[in-house]
Amino acid sequence: MRSQTPKPLHRLCGRPMILHVLDTLAALTVERVVVVVGHGANEVTKVVQAEAPAGMQLEFVEQPEQRGTGDAVGVALTGFPEAYADLDDADLLVLPGDAPLVRSATLASLVRHHREEDAAATVLTAQLDDPFGCSRVLRDKDGGVARIVDDHDCTPEELDVDEIATQIYCFRHSVLAPALRRVPPDQVSGEYFLTSTIEVLHDAGYPVTAVIVSDPVEAAGVNDRAQLAAAEAEIRSRVNERWMRRGVTMADPESTYVDLTVVLSTDVVLLPGVILEGATSISEGAVIGPFTRLLDCEVGAGARIEESTAERAVIGDDVLVRAFSVLEPGTRLAAGERVGPFFGRP
């Protein structure tokens, strides 16, 4: 049976999952981004280099043997040049490649809190009504974070804690490498877990804090196909809301699918059941749908496309495409044309 675990290149709204994480970082002031690659390293590197946000300084380092999140972060530190070693007060954000829902504003808040508290480490957490299966955040008497404990290692009392840890952290650069060297391997798997650095730093007397995310949805990772579908739905909802606030009309947003790579002009109307994919662009005043799928198409102003499918087609201004039309790749419709089963063209 093939693995059902989503990979970094699984697409959400037309973008590989890892690219959503990089898009989020691109909205912040980040000096350098190090991407740790393992299985399928060449393919991941090629896609990320081709589609990463413009101007982002990327470095790729390979984790040849997957020995846990702590080991992955240790490998990541090798991606920073020696010049960074002298920046003891520099901060490092750590994010997994399967956290596409976290927002830039949340990461900015995490870093701001980390600096205001002069913390050695700050972890992004969430409060859940049902934290089953999640790592619990255990605090000390002063409210600092003392430990992060996996669900299966919790005592009955610890299982009652509703604050869970995400895999998103901000570390003070100068303490991270020494803390990683003190992390013991897991007794069962032999892996080194990044969560263990929290206890190491706390027990060494360093301040460790947490920021509770206001929307727990942002804390969701993608570990199976059900979570992949949930993440897709959340991102599509955000995309649709953004376009509607820019002047696009959606008769039924829940049945409207618009890739992040699509470009829409103002006063475009999308009727129920519309799917817009790839490099599709729709000019002002066009009406698309219902039940229409366009892939890599260019649609002119005032055009109307009803219950049809088109791929790599150019559809001119004020064109009318009637129901049940199929526009094959390379189709070009001049301004004002009328096409469809009842017009004699497809």
Question: What is this structure's SSE topology?
Answer:
Elements: E1 11-12, E2 15-16, H1 17-26, E3 33-37, H2 41-51, E4 58-62, H3 69-77, E5 91-94, H4 104-116, E6 121-127, E7 136-139, E8 145-149, H5 156-159, E9 163-172, H6 173-181, H7 196-203, E10 208-212, H8 225-245, E11 249-250, E12 257-258, E13 263-264, E14 269-270, E15 275-277, E16 281-282, E17 287-288, E18 293-295, E19 298-299, E20 304-305, E21 309-311, E22 314-315, E23 320-321, E24 326-327, E25 332-333, E26 338-339
Parallel strand pairs: 3-4, 6-10, 11-14, 12-15, 13-16, 14-17, 15-18, 16-19, 17-20, 18-21, 19-22, 20-23, 21-24, 22-25, 23-26
Antiparallel strand pairs: 1-2, 5-9, 6-9, 7-8
Written account of the structure:
The protein is α/β, with parallel strands linked by helices. The chain has 2 domains: 11-219, Spore Coat Polysaccharide Biosynthesis Protein SpsA, Chain A (Alpha-Beta Complex); 246-339, 3 Solenoid (UDP N-Acetylglucosamine Acyltransferase, domain 1), CATH 2.160.10.10. It contains 8 helices and 26 strands. It has helices spanning 17-26, 41-51, 69-77, 104-116, 156-159, 173-181, 196-203, 225-245, and strands spanning 11-12, 15-16, 33-37, 58-62, 91-94, 121-127, 136-139, 145-149, 163-172, 208-212, 249-250, 257-258, 263-264, 269-270, 275-277, 281-282, 287-288, 293-295, 298-299, 304-305, 309-311, 314-315, 320-321, 326-327, 332-333, 338-339. It has a 6-stranded parallel beta sheet, covered by helices on one side. Strands 12-15-18-21-24 form a 5-stranded parallel beta sheet. Strands 13-16-19-22-25 form a 5-stranded parallel beta sheet, with no helix packed on it. Helix 6 (173-181) packs across helix 7. The longest helix is centred in the C-terminal third of the chain and has 21 residues, at 225-245.
